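User: Can you recover a sequence for this backbone? Please restate the input before giving your answer.

Assistant: Of course. Working from this structure:
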């Protein structure tokens, strides 16, 4: 989902900026913040919102 990826990119940047390298040596990736991006079947925005609730 395009909307989800743009928000996930911002979340990744902020999380890596605040990341403690001692506690989490590997940086966050965009896939850490896009749970629906790895799905094989497309999902609608309404279905994604429903899964958050």
């Amino acid at each position: 989902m395009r909307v989800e990826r743009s928000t996930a990119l911002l979340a990744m940047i902020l999380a890596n900026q605040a990341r403690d390298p001692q506690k989490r040596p590997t940086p966050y990736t965009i896939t850490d913040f896009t749970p629906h991006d790895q799905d094989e079947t497309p999902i609608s925005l309404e279905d994604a919102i429903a899964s958050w609730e």
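That completes the design. Residues 2-18 form the longest helix (17 residues).
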